[in-house]
Amino acid sequence: MKRVRITVMRKARYDDLIEKYENPIEHACDLEEGRVFICEGHKKPEGFCDSAWESLSPFVMTLAYGGEDFFDGWMKNKRSAMISCNDGFRPVSFLVEVAE
Fold first, then answer.
1. Residue 53 — left, alpha, or beta (φ > 0 → left; ψ -120 to 50 → alpha)?
2. What is the value of pTM for the model shown?
3. For 22, which of 35, 66, 74, 90 is 20 to 30 Å away at the CA?
4. H-helix or E-strand containing 18?
5. Are 47 and 24 a contacting pair, CB within 8 Å?
6. Which tens digit of pLDDT belongs to each residue from 1-60?
7. CA–CA gap between residue 5 and residue 91 (Å, rounded)
């Protein structure tokens, strides 16, 4: 089984949507751009957001077991994927790739 690296690439925040629709939340996302997590197989790394893991885990599992080339040539590196978490107010983009 392969190790998989998850890198926090970009964070966005939609204050207009937050103000209009969301109840206040403290510490909604503490991830910082550039932070790296290493997955041993398909296990969620310590300190990783549960909600983001729901979005990323199918891709991590596929890469951990040797799969590649998601969506027929979507990524330049066939052993990677760019996936965002499912938070519509402050989405985070992650690069998920096989750790060499």
1. alpha
2. 0.92
3. 35
4. helix 15-21
5. no
6. 999 999 999 999 999 999 999 998 887 888 999 999 999 888 899 999 999 999 999 999
7. 19
Query: How many other CB atoms are found less than 10 A from the CB of residue 38?
Result: 10
Cα separation, 27 vs 57, whole angstroms: 22
Q: What share of the chain is helix, strand, coil (3-state, %, to 5)?
A: 20, 25, 50
For residues 54 and 85, give the distance between their C-alpha atoms in angstroms, rounded to a whole number: 8
Which residues constitute the domain of residue 80?
A: 3-98
Cα distances (Å, whole numbers) of residue 2 to 14, 34, 49, 94, 98: 36, 22, 21, 18, 7
- pLDDT per residue as tens digits for the range 81-93: 999 999 999 999 9
How many structural domains comprise the chain? 1
pLDDT digits (tens, 9 = 90+) for 43-64: 899 999 999 999 999 999 999 9
